[in-house]
Amino acid sequence: MGLESLAEQAQILLRSRLCNPNFIFSIFSNSPDSNYSKLKYMISSSITEACNNSVLLLGPRGCGKVAVLELVLEDLLKEYPDMISVIKLNGLLHSDHNCALKEISRQLCLEHQLLFSKMASFDDNAQFMVSMLRECGLAHKTILFILDEFDLFAQGKQLLLYSLLDAMQSVTSQAVVVGISCRLDADQLLEKRVRSRFSHRKLLFLPPSREDLQRLLEHILLLPMNSSFPHEYVAAFNDKLLKIFADDKFKETVDTLSYCDSTVNHLLRFLFSAVSRMDLKSGLLSLENFKAALSTIQRQPKLEALKDCSILELYILVCMKRLEAKEQELRNFNSIMKEYKSIHDTFPSSDYYARNVCLRAFEHLLQRELISFEDNRGHGQSTEFRPVKLLISWPELYQGLKSYHSCPLILHKIMDREG
Amino acid sequence: MGKEQSPQVNRRTTRSSSSTTPNSKATGEVSKIISSTKSLTVNDLVLSDESVNLEELINYFPHRRMQILELIKLLGPLNSPMIPLFVYGGASTGKTSTVLEIFKHLSRPFIYSSCVTCYNPRILFESILNQLLLHRKNESNGYSSAKRCEKPSDFVNLLRDALSTLIDSLKGDVGKSNSKKSASHVNGRMIYLIIDNLEHVREWDKSSNMLPFLFNLYDILKIPEVGLIFISKTSLDTYHSDTGYVEPFPVYFPDYTEGDLRQILLKNQSNPKLYSSFLDAVLGPFCRITRRVDDVTAAISPLYKKYCEPLDDTGVIPNKDTKSELYRYINPYISQSLKETFHVPSQPTLEASASKDKTKRKGITKLGVRESLDKIDFHMSTCAKYLLISAFLASKNPATLDASLFDSTGGAGNQKRKRKSSGKSMEQKESKEQELLVKGPGTFPLERLLAIFQCITSVAEYSPDDEDPQIDGQGADGWDSGLMSDVLLQLSSLCSSNFITKGGSCPLEGAVRYRSAVSEDMALKVARSLKFPLSKYLYRT
């Protein structure tokens, strides 16, 4: 009985680790040439030297840009209390400059115990920001602007970026702008007047190497020795895990995982699935858990959708494919029906249905997104006439038909001939 | 269409749907017992009148054991954080009902919003906030939301506040219930946000911003006590975004197989033996067309009535002979109904209002129902009918033939055309005809429509003198050129009700082009009601 609740506790611990990126990336914080150290040095030097600075953190999604920055901030706030105030913006929320300035003033007010007015105009907020920058500069306080999804701020007139960077040009101000983006060309998106005010420091975040991945796995999954868990349980749990890590089959699993996507986020999702599959009776993770997790995370949605199709829907798909192979310019429901009829004429079968039944199946296919309309323009036109395109490739369709358990032989024959 | 209405899932009740307040699509709360004046508590975020145990839950959804167990595993033990989940699968595979019932089973607090009822960002945001703030729209607050918020930035701030107060109160509750009696039946201090029908967000105005925002919401909030669950009919790869998004964890609900369908349909049947022999006969052919529960149930329920007709007593357990007898009896009906599946029966309504006309009309053209009803089941002015016919003609016929079709002698063009057709031109025409069928109705400028309109109305006016006996003067009664003045008005109302669609302007001419959106059957019906010989004017091979 005790074991089961222990296992549950362990599961909760592991799950909260997996959901907390700050914990995951803390592993990289002690090596000297990591992004963590570089970023920390850069920001802390501009705090101590009281200068303006700007930097871009670039890299694919799920490589820990935000998490590393948060770790750095956490440390800096401890090191230099009362010398930093942090303003966080997100391009998804504040790409509109009006909204962004409002949010900046709101956070500034919150930070400095000032009264924030919702009714303040854009101009008021802009002036407020500039004067706050000056005041903070006089008080030797650095304002850190964190712009997540930086590329979205570069849309439109880039008024926010301009006013922010322009305000930083004065000697009195003291601010650091950190842009975070998954677009590697984020700095190319900037206008000339903005780019000239931006220092071109960039930090590149890459997916972890194989060795790092191994370290990361141990960092995440091993239970801590000095915790509330009984020693024997922790020892048994960790022993089993290390044995699994050494297993060739496990290595293979991790390799196939990182083959398609080697970012940390992908790994975390995989581990999350494995951990939630943990057997509570034994209280230990097993190799089967990891294998099952791999199969749940590697989905082939088009093949799944194909398996869900009815026979009639398969007929329509094959007709579409044939039309595509014939390079017929216009493909819509009517031309598909013509093809369907010709197939039926050459290979008579019981699967010949009335037009409205086929139309319904056609609409089902649209819903499944195996086919889609070619354009969004012809809203007024009825479904039968709008041109459609196939969203599934030939090999996928071929494979899907092969694995469909009661697929009519005719369809196989047609597909073989087309191939 | 996508709503599950099959017998096994009709218990799908969200708090919203079981609520009494009419205007509370999203803000409704658990029970009707709570009067609208009573303030809501955290308990109302849990959907549990009676708790359901796991075995019941699994039995309740046939062939969803795998999915249920996986979801429960992913939700994890009490108070364990969770990465966002993405539940997907075809229509009527029990996604929403399964998820909701699981929460009933776990009795954890959750919030449910569907992107169908919340059809724009503002309504979605306010619905989520209303539920979190335990606010209910009622008369005293003028059916207004708790907070007004339109922008995602405001929403995140408000959401963060609301969530943290709620989580605090949940933590407090847990502490209290340990010391005192368990007053609350809320389990844990996680709050789950369920966003249903996510695929609709793609059609919203600012979907390019909205979707990544929703997918990234977990990372933006950074509150580990929040669980996000998205439910969608389409898989993750259909959600495109320029710079990607944080992918949620996928959970797949496959369509039911024929065997599964059989079990589902057999549930709650008074005479399972009889029904099973009925399904033996019927289910196979239907499954070749569709395996969607809602479609199949709708299609076979009238058949079952037919099936039972020869029996005196529906409680009888069929033996081999009766089975084969019944099979022979039902077989012709099956093939009949396979042809007619999914047709929308149109009820003749006398008080067909304009809006009803519209929806019905749309349904008819869309589903292409081929019913040979003699009458059209809505009212339309004579002028509009003529306009409709002329639009149809203008779309169907090539413009070059107008002169020969509508010359002063009316129908004479018909014979002329027939005379001309030689072997080669026949071939040409055939290919043209095919092209027309494939490309759909052609477009035409306003001038051509008006010209045809004038031609056919003048024919109708002078019809008594004409040699054509089919046309009598009645259709043209009180019909004079004075009515021409409001033709444009009629045209615009036809456009707005989607009988005629306004296309883009022609790049050469610059004028707006129109296109008729009615099927040939419908046009023939309208023509019949006017006693207008439409087929004479149709260009055919």
TrEMBL record, chain A:
Cellular component per GO, a single term: nucleus
MF terms (GO), sorted A to Z: ATP binding; DNA binding
Domain ATPase AAA-type core: residue ranges: 55-201
Keyword Transport: no
Transmembrane segments: none
Name this polypeptide is given: Origin of replication complex subunit 4
Similarity comment: family membership: Belongs to the ORC4 family.
Alphabetical keyword list: ATP-binding, DNA replication, DNA-binding, Nucleotide-binding, Nucleus
Gene3D superfamilies: P-loop containing nucleotide triphosphate hydrolases (3.40.50.300)
Domain of life: Eukaryota
One GO biological process term: DNA replication
Residue ranges constituting the Origin recognition complex subunit 4 C-terminal domain according to the UniProt record: 216-399
From TrEMBL, chain B:
Chief localization: nucleus
Listed Basic and acidic residues bias regions: 426-436
Coiled coil: none
The protein's name in its UniProt record: Origin of replication complex subunit 5
Start and end residues of each Orc1-like AAA ATPase domain: 61-216
Residue ranges of the region described as Disordered: 1-29, 405-437
BP-aspect Gene Ontology terms: DNA replication
Residue span(s) of domain ORC5 lid: 275-326
Keywords, in A-Z order: ATP-binding, DNA replication, Nucleotide-binding, Nucleus
Annotated Polar residues bias: 1-10
Compartments in which it is found: Nucleus
Family statement: Belongs to the ORC5 family.
